[in-house]
Amino acid sequence: MQRSLYKEPWIRFSVKVIALLTVLVAAGFAFASRYRIGWDNQKETCLPYHLFLIDLKDQRIKRGAFYAFSVRGLAPIYQDGTTMIKQIVGLPSDRIRIDAFNQITVNTKIVGQGLPLAPRLSAQAAYFQGHMILQSDQYWLMGWHPQSLDSRYFGAIQADQIRGRAYGLL
Predict the structure, then answer these.
(1) For residue 84, what are the contacts with CB-CB under 8 A and spacing of at least 6?
(2) For 47-64, how does the pLDDT look when each residue is reduced to its tens digit (9 = 90+)?
(3) Is 121 in a helix, a strand, or coil?
(4) What is the pTM of this model?
(5) pLDDT tens column, 20-53
(6) What are the contacts of 40-43 at 24+ separation with CB within 8 A?
(7) What is d(CA 163, CA 28) in angstroms, rounded to the nearest whole number?
(8) Torsion sign across C-alpha atoms 70, 74, 78, 84
């Protein structure tokens, strides 16, 4: 059996390569228009994942899911527009309470304990204590680690701050 030593003409090969590259670039742009990759490079992470796929088109809010959102009013710790990822634990009309023992509850369910970052924020724990009912465009977000900078410190976020749902990958 003899193998063919036929070589494809350069022009025909070039057309195939250009067509393949065009498809790959178009697929890349389509992916980039909908998704972002989020990487948590902190030493102490507040979520169980380090790598996230953020779906910018998925705006359906679900309690317990992770969401990427834009930070507002946390300077000088974080500049406005910085993207953070936390878990939504409070939805509109939920009752949020931080009691005198620094226990955080949503509708009487405990979702967190302690305010260990209060001194770093130059505040007493009592400053963060109180209760509220989330309005129709407000959400309460928490990290899983006690050192998480989350809604217990910066309060509820507005619906327009949510960038998309985040899916943990690694």
Answers:
(1) 68, 69, 71, 78
(2) 999 999 999 999 899 999
(3) helix
(4) 0.87
(5) 999 999 999 999 999 999 998 887 788 999 999 9
(6) 40/85
(7) 20
(8) negative
Are 134 and 92 in contact by the 8 Å Cβ rule? The answer is yes
pLDDT in tens, 148-160: 999 999 999 999 9
Nearest CA-CA partner of 150 in 66, 99, 85, 60 = 85
Q: Which residue has the tokens 């102490």?
A: 44
- Cβ atoms of 63 and 74 closer than 8 Å: no
Q: Are strands 109-113 and 103-106 parallel, antiparallel or unpaired?
A: antiparallel
Other beta carbons less than 10 A from residue 68's beta carbon? 20
User: Is the preceding peptide bond at 76 cis, omega within 30 degrees of 0?
Assistant: yes
Looking at residue 127, its amino acid is Y
How is residue 112 written in tokens?
Answer: 């967190």
Which of 121, 116, 119 minimizes the C-alpha distance to 75? 121
